[in-house]
UniProtKB/TrEMBL annotation:
InterPro entries: ComplexI_NDUFA9_subunit, NAD(P)-bd_dom, NAD(P)-bd_dom_sf. It comes from Saccharomonospora azurea NA-128. SUPFAM superfamilies: NAD(P)-binding Rossmann-fold domains (SSF51735). The lineage of its organism: Bacteria, Bacillati, Actinomycetota, Actinomycetes, Pseudonocardiales. GO terms for molecular function: protein-containing complex binding. This is Nucleoside-diphosphate sugar epimerase. Residues 12-143 form the NAD(P)-binding domain.
Length: 259
């Protein structure tokens, strides 16, 4: 059940996902406070607070009077303690500010694929669950943007060698809308995973990317080894039984290259 119009703080609100969350919240009539470590601006009517995530007092001040916090900021590099330390600081600030709901975005298969970043996301999930703030966690599959970026990098070679794994890319707009909806509601714990409308072989997605980008290099699937690759081969990063978006990778590409 959605609550009356409230104030929601969004960490990382100037990033790819954060902007979508902010847009959905504003469209629904909520007051939004964006915390960001950059000086990027958003839109009129949205208060953007530049913070150092390593300074709890700055975060706590930004979260004052916020009914909910959507935690979209992330630390992929692992510097300054990484994702888990960032989550710990956001949690402490939300708790000290008296926020009644924290929404965290994670990754499908984070607990089953042994990538360092995935392990950090799983650790942060545990922190959220035990952090003393009522919580909601949403796991999503890979964004269209990530699959396109990886595919673009691969197609710079004359012969495109692509690991024979599958992806279920999802629209960042739809993930942002789901997070905004969750923030408007009551804490729900771990909710159903969210994936894209199609599960496709990565080589086929690369071919779609090439067609949209006007490239025509030969694509050859390859087999890799190791525990990370085995996790992807097993499909642990997919959400066939979860909720699904509606925007396909091909639709995303058509819109991207049209713009």
């Amino acid at each position: 059940m959605s609550r009356p119009m409230s104030t929601v703080a969004v960490t990382g609100g100037t990033g790819t996902l954060g902007r979508e969350v902010v847009g959905a919240l504003v469209a629904a009539g909520h007051d939004v406070v964006v915390t960001s470590c950059s000086s990027s601006s958003l839109r009129d009517g949205v208060r953007t607070v530049r913070v150092d995530y390593g300074r709890p007092v700055e975060l706590r001040a930004a979260f004052e009077r916020a009914d909910a916090v959507v935690h979209c900021a992330t630390n992929v590099t692992g510097l300054r303690g990484g994702e888990a330390e960032l989550g710990k600081r956001v949690l402490a600030a939300a708790r000290d500010a008296g926020c009644g709901h924290l929404v965290y975005i994670s990754i499908v298969g984070a607990d089953r694929i042994p990538l360092p970043y995935y392990k950090a996301k799983t650790s942060t999930e545990r922190l959220v669950e035990d952090g003393g703030v009522p919580w909601t966690i949403l796991r999503a599959t890979q964004f269209h943007e990530l699959v396109a970026r990886l595919s673009s990098a691969l197609t710079r070679s004359p012969l495109v060698l692509v690991p024979d794994i599958r992806f279920q890319p999802v629209s960042v707009t739809e993930v942002g809308a789901r997070l905004a909806d969750l923030a408007r509601g009551s804490p729900a714990g771990r909710v159903r995973d969210l994936g894209g409308p199609e599960i496709a072989d990565w080589p086929d997605l690369v071919r779609q990317f090439q067609a949209a980008a006007g490239r025509s290099r030969p694509v050859r699937p390859i087999t890799l080894f190791g525990s990370v690759y085995a996790g992807y081969r097993a499909g642990h990063h997919l959400a066939p039984d979860g909720d699904t978006g509606t925007i396909t990778f091909q639709q995303y590409l058509a819109d991207r290259f049209r713009r």
